[in-house]
Specification:
The protein has 251 residues and is of the alpha/beta class. It is built from eight helices and seven strands.
Length: 251
Amino acid sequence: MTPFDLTGRWAIVTGANTGIGQAIAVGLAEAGADVVGVGRSAMTETEAHIIAAGRRFIAIKADLSRSDSAREVIAETLAAGATPDILVNNAGIIRRADALDFTEEDWDAVLDTNLKSVFFLCQAFAKAAIAAERKAKIINIASLLSFQGGIRVPSYTAAKSGLSGLTKLMANEWAARGINVNAIAPGYVETNNTTALRADAERNADILKRIPAGRWARPEDMAGAAVFLASPASDYVHGVILPVDGGWLAR
């Protein structure tokens, strides 16, 4: 048994249907965890990978733009017989427009899904873990824009900067209750959210020039960090925002 072994653990992963969420869900399963996938769309492919790894998978359909869905997700997870002790808050959306033109609708949509809903899911998960006297790990998916301003994504930057602060606050309050709260800050990753950036030849070239690793990240590049933060290997790690960015922030 290694300190990275997740055998006997249950992980809730939001947005597990594709991209980073899928890669993390599969990575946790390969390390031994059973998985509850949460999202609005089918997670058939993710389920197939997890079953192939010999682990159990439960799919929960939920609209995470509604903060009241948090209690429902935890209730459904427990009702299905899972005992969740890992939570990965990966689900998120992005809206792009100049700050001068950004709409209130796009502001609210991103903040509701990427920040408000995440907080209340963490809260519901933590309450269940504390009530069951179960040690637990929360992994939030932050962003390079938790450190930088970016351009044309004001609500996304606000949400991810807020998530960085909330990660530290929850770590401060819950560390003594047996709950580790940390975050992964992915660099530029090949996902649906970055299709527009990669299609812009000039912007794509500018981004690649700054990444010391010389390539965009692949979703599976995030899995190892997630396994670490979910495992006993990180038991004394609290309130960290871990960049997995190919060296972007070091540049």
